Automatic annotation (TrEMBL):
It comes from Paenirhodobacter populi. Coiled coil: none annotated. Residues 5-62 form the HTH lysR-type domain. It holds the Pfam family HTH_1. Belongs to the LysR transcriptional regulatory family. It comes from the Bacteria. GO terms for biological process: DNA-templated transcription. Keywords: DNA-binding, Transcription, Transcription regulation. The keyword Ligase does not apply. GO terms for molecular function: DNA-binding transcription factor activity; sequence-specific DNA binding. This is LysR family transcriptional regulator. The keyword Glycosyltransferase does not apply.
Length: 302
């Protein structure tokens, strides 16, 4: 079997053949022009072939040099292609979970570390988007979505969430709230749902539930997570989804003076493809998501 020249010399010659200039080849490989010339000269000596000739102050490939370069270029292209395949396979091994933005921020994001601690070798990619990915085309492996969206045959209900009026403790400090209607005297933060979704209960619906009327909200957000953050900052009461405020309630950053809950009009779902379950740890994640959703449904319903 013929002895293969050193890879360093082959790389220098390949770069020279593609760049057409010693200086450009050196810049590409991050070495000096002298190093390129030295490696190319060494390669010619090893092969006992004149691969380059001087032209002015530079080097050009001879006819044999051009012939040899065309062949080794195919070899380097094959190596580069193999690396691309490996990189894609490594990326594809990651389980891609797509969620609605606020679901990622406030529900699954804080909880996913529990699953990761049980599966330290698993690779997981989380994406927050209100645009539904095409699971059949491989744009995601799992999708947490709201309402009756059209998804593959493989889907299951996660939970139906409820909303409850929550605020920062400082907002009501020094005030005596004796009746649920007292909540309506404070600034109210609203959430404007995307038109593609059946909206959650608004302040007017909650007020009607307690036999009162709600004033117009002075502040509204398109993202539930942002509305909750505003409430944490003391901007007012928010009708927050129970699943989204677990950490805020636990830490005391939000309080619920009156635990009067209203359900969302539709549940959250989990969708997936059969191909997704073939990935390492994907079935374990699938089971965990369903179990976490069931547990959340019980908590949200109170």
């Amino acid at each position: 079997m013929p002895q293969i020249p050193p890879l360093k010399a082959l790389r220098a010659f390949d770069a020279l053949g593609r760049a057409g200039s010693v200086a450009l080849a050196a810049a590409e490989l991050g070495v000096t022009p002298g190093a390129i010339s030295q490696q190319v000269t060494r390669l010619g000596e090893l092969l006992a072939v004149q691969l380059v000739a001087r032209s002015g102050r530079g080097l050009v490939l001879t006819e044999l040099g051009r012939l040899y370069h065309a062949e080794i270029r195919r070899g380097f292209a094959a190596l580069e292609g193999a690396q691309d395949v490996l990189d894609r396979a490594r990326e594809d091994a990651a389980i891609r979970l797509s969620c609605l933005t606020s679901v990622l921020m406030k529900w699954i994001g804080p909880r996913i570390f529990d699953w990761q601690s049980q599966h330290p070798g698993a690779r997981l990619s989380l994406t927050g988007s209100d645009i539904e990915p095409d699971l059949i085309r491989g744009e995601a492996d799992f999708r947490i979505y709201y309402g009756g969206r059209i998804h593959p045959a493989h889907h299951a209900v996660l939970f139906t969430d409820h909303v409850v009026p929550a605020c920062a403790p400082d907002l009501i400090a020094g005030h005596s709230l004796r009746d649920p209607a007292d909540v309506l005297a404070f600034p109210l933060v609203s959430i404007v749902w995307n038109r593609r979704f059946a909206p959650g209960p608004e302040w007017s619906v909650w007020a009607e539930r307690i036999g009162a009327s709600a004033p117009e909200s002075a502040l509204s957000y398109s993202l539930s997570g942002s509305a909750i953050d505003a409430a944490v900052a003391g901007r007012g009461f928010v009708l927050a989804q129970i699943s989204f405020i677990a950490e805020e309630l636990r830490s005391g950053r939000l309080v619920v003076p009156f635990d009067i809950r209203l359900p969302l009009s539709e549940p959250y779902y989990l969708a997936w493809t059969e191909a997704a379950l073939a990935k390492p740890d994907a079935r374990a994640l699938h089971r965990w998501l369903l179990a976490t959703g069931r547990a959340q449904g019980i908590i949200s319903a109170g």
